[in-house]
Amino acid sequence: MLLTVSGPPGSGKSTAAAGLAGALGYEHVSGGDVFRELAAERGLSLSEFNALAEEDDAIDRDLDRRLRELAAERDDLILESRLAGWMAAEYADLRLWLNAPIDVRAERIADREGKPVEQAREETRSRAKSEGLRYEEYYGIDITDLSIYDFAVNTARWGPEETTDLLVTAAERYDPTGDEGAFPVTDVRYEF
Prior knowledge:
Layout: E1 2-6, H1 13-24, E2 27-30, H2 31-41, H3 46-55, H4 57-73, E3 77-80, H5 84-88, E4 94-99, H6 102-113, H7 117-139, E5 151-154, H8 160-173
Parallel strand pairs: 1-3, 1-4, 2-3, 4-5
């Protein structure tokens, strides 16, 4: 089974995806880790690399191509990235969306990256807008449209273990016939 975990920066998607992979015994591939590695290889901060990606669409397209290839080739995989649900397309068995209010996400990012919360908040907003514009331009994807996801969780309401438990339950209840299992998310929009 291929599961995707998507959400904005600081939503807890990496932690949840790792926990879900561990609980199910699946491999975990993080698009964010790949993006950060590419930035580090060039000696750039995430903000700088994101700005470069605005000018050089080959960065995003290469990352997204790799995600699509993984989705097509592998099974028993947790694919985690902002666009994993979109990039996995018809290969995804279950698409999961994680989110939290911007203030919660900014605090998490500030903690993780050792920077002031206000700086993390502004960088997060800027990054989200930049990525949203690129996704629309490259693929016609409206990242705020959550209707492709089967299950959505506000991670500010639960701790990491509880969030993982929710996702494991969703995966265990998954029914490929569509009769039971996932809880559809329809007509929902994510706000930057």
